[in-house]
């Protein structure tokens, strides 16, 4: 078949030029205008007919039989070869654009570090994923700065010389670590900083280093913040937090109904919370994403919806769950009660449920507990009586 292959000569002379090209698709035609990131802005056009075509540009060291492997492991990164040709990304190693159409590139499945195939052997930063598993706790002081001198006037990551005046290289501060970085390790990426969120309820994104950005992105959904311990005062100042805490407590009270109800299990009701698994496990751990969503008003909405859906199953739709309601044993009147109803109190010892007005404080004797202790006593006396001949 006809085979045309035209490449603007400038392209081969720029640093962006690949040493070789790979096409593995059977038959396609593509036209790509290389955007004006390069001064010459060359236009590349391909018209390929027939089977897989590999074409070298004659660069030294190009091996026509060398296949780029799909997976490469470097410093604990697990790099997968990217299939996407059209996405324009920036290489985390050399800070230049990755031209997906003509360059092979890889993304780490652990930390999303991406780079050119040619830059892979030069990667010196270990995968942040391992840092997340070893260091699963945030640094919680706000921008803990100690000064350039304590860093020896060098980038905190690659040790390149830096200075505040920009000579030889600009020093950029990371708001998360408080340290200074060179411009290839700090791209002025913006991220919500956990210390500012939790101490100041401040969600304004701040400039962070590449490494911090990847770490924060990997950590954002992890429930590692025990608000009650880090900043208990927050509950006095942020109304939404009180609302969320109540909804979470209720959901934990509903959980026993669901895990013993076949219908609820089949309807996969608890899976409504699969993105926030910790909400099914406890009511005190928060992820940074939870806080971001609370501040934006999103979490309260979605959690109220789930709460309504859950309550509807237990109180209206499911006979089996309905049967597990309580009648207030103190007044023996009124509707069937559930522990998550708003006007109720729950005995901390036996989990029996009463009207709040009937069980108004801890001095109230729970009739169920009283009955249980009476039974225990008589059992004990029986066994004593049996033991004595
Ligand atoms: Zn690169
Ligand atoms: Zn990685
Ligand atoms: Zn650096
Ligand atoms: Zn049920
Ligand atoms: Zn009552
Ligand atoms: Zn009780």
TrEMBL record:
CDD domains: C1_DEF8. GO terms for molecular function: zinc ion binding. Positively regulates lysosome peripheral distribution and ruffled border formation in osteoclasts. Involved in bone resorption. It comes from the Eukaryota. GO terms for biological process: lysosome localization; positive regulation of bone resorption; positive regulation of ruffle assembly. Belongs to the DEF8 family. The keyword Repeat applies. Keywords: Metal-binding, Repeat, Zinc, Zinc-finger. Residues 76-127 form the Phorbol-ester/DAG-type domain. InterPro entries: C1-like_sf, DEF8, DEF8_C1, Multihaem_cyt_sf, PKC_DAG/PE, RH_dom. SMART domains: C1, DUF4206. Gene3D superfamilies: 3.30.60.20. This is Differentially expressed in FDCP 8 homolog. It comes from Anser brachyrhynchus. Coiled coil: none annotated. The lineage of its organism: Eukaryota, Metazoa, Chordata, Craniata, Vertebrata.
């Amino acid at each position: 078949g006809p085979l045309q292959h035209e490449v603007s000569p400038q392209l081969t002379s720029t640093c962006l030029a690949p040493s070789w090209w790979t096409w593995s698709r059977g038959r396609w035609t593509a036209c790509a205008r290389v955007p004006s990131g390069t001064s010459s802005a060359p236009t590349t056009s391909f018209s390929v007919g027939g089977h897989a075509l590999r074409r070298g540009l004659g660069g030294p060291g190009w091996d026509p039989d060398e296949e780029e492997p799909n997976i490469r492991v470097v410093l604990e990164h697990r790099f997968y070869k990217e299939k996407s040709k059209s996405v324009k990304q920036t290489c985390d190693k050399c800070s230049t654009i990755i031209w997906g159409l003509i360059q092979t590139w890889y993304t780490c499945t652990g930390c999303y570090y991406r780079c050119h195939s040619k830059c892979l052997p030069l990667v010196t930063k270990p995968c942040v994923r391992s840092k997340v598993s070893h260091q699963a706790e945030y640094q919680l002081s706000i921008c803990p700065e100690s000064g350039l001198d304590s860093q020896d006037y060098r980038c905190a990551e690659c040790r390149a010389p830096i200075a505040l005046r920009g000579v030889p290289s600009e020093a950029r501060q990371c708001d998360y670590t408080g340290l200074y970085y060179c411009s290839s390790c700090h791209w002025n990426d913006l991220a919500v900083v956990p210390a500012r969120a939790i101490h100041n309820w401040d969600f304004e994104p701040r400039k962070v280093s590449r490494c911090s950005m990847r770490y924060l992105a990997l950590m954002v959904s992890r429930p590692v913040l025990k608000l009650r311990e880090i900043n208990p005062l927050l509950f006095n100042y942020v109304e939404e937090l009180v609302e969320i805490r109540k909804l979470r407590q209720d959901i934990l009270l509903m959980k026993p109904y669901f895990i013993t109800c076949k219908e609820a299990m089949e309807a996969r009701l608890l899976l409504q919370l699969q993105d926030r698994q910790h909400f099914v496990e406890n009511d005190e751990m928060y992820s940074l994403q939870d806080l971001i969503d609370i501040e934006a008003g999103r979490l309260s909405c979605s959690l109220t919806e789930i709460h309504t859906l859950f309550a509807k199953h237990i109180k209206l739709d499911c006979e089996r769950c309905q049967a597990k309601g309580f009648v207030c044993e103190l007044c023996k009147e009124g509707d069937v009660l559930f522990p998550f109803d708003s006007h109720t109190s729950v005995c901390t010892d036996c989990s029996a449920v009463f009207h709040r007005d009937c069980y108004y404080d801890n001095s109230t004797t729970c009739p169920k507990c009283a009955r249980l202790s009476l039974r225990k006593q008589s059992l004990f006396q029986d066994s004593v009586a049996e033991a004595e001949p």
